[in-house]
Amino acid sequence: MARRKQAAKKVAKAKSKAAKAKTTAKTASKKVVKLVKKSSNGNGLPRPSSKPWGQAGRALEGVRILDFTHVQSGPTCTQLLAYMGADVIKVERPGVGDITRGQLRDVKGADSLYFTMLNGSKRSITIDSKNPKGKEILDRLIRHCDVLVENFAPGALDRMGLTWEHVHKLNPRMVVASVKGFGPGPMRTARSTRT
Q1: How many other β-carbons are positioned within 10 Å of the β-carbon of residue 151?
Q2: Using alpha carbons only, how large is the chain's radius of gyration in Å?
Q3: Residue 17 — left, alpha, or beta (φ > 0 → left; ψ -120 to 50 → alpha)?
Q4: Could you tell me which residue, 96 or 162, shows the higher pLDDT?
């Protein structure tokens, strides 16, 4: 009789766990990420930590990065920022995403190890910058991010309508970082990668 009660308890416990897992899965699938304005100390800067030195967390916690990078140099840069605690939001092209998702793929139907290695600590979003709704979303992201990192060919951001003037009109504190294969000079417009 005691064994039957134990077996009945185990079955009830398993059913309870399954119901909780199902509820959690439903909740997680409906989760919406909201951009929240950061608290500041009146001058637009984040509040300094009140925790003792070394116990406040990672160096870049609270910093939000808008990542327009692809292939290797740019994603490596933003991956390091993510390792240091930054919230990195990777913007990808609709329909194809980052080209490295399919390069050197070792598991059919999954992102390549090459892609996941350089983008594992990031959130991704696909946005069509030519669509008015996509442009609106990009503008909202620019207002709420601290740093924009890109490694496009020279002039690509301008052609997307994301000129220095436009970005700084939306967010005067935005830092724009460009990762390029070649600096100023005769090779300035040369491509450092072939994709």
Answers
A1: 24
A2: 22
A3: alpha
A4: 162
| Phi–psi pair at 13, nearest 5 degrees | -65, -40
**164 vs 172: CA distance, rounded Å:** 10
- Please work out, in degrees rounded to the nearest 5, the angle formed at the alpha carbon of residue 149 by the alpha carbons of 148 and 153: 120
**pLDDT value of position 33:** 55
Q: Which of 30, 148, 29 is nearest to 88 (CA)?
A: 148
* Alpha-carbon distances of 165 from 133, 153, 157, 174, rounded to whole Å: 21, 19, 11, 11
Q: Among the residues of the chain, which ranges form H helices?
A: 2-29, 73-83, 113-119, 132-144, 156-159, 164-170
Contacts of 157 (CB under 8 A, 6+ apart): 68, 150, 163
CA distance 4 to 9: 9
Determine whether 91 is exposed, middle or buried from the number of CB atoms within 10 Å of its CB (0-12, 13-18, 19+): buried
How many residues are there in the chain?
Answer: 195
190: its two tokens: 């040369």
Tell me the C-alpha distance between 6 and 12, whole Å: 10
pLDDT in tens, 30-63: 555 555 555 556 666 666 667 776 666 788 888 9
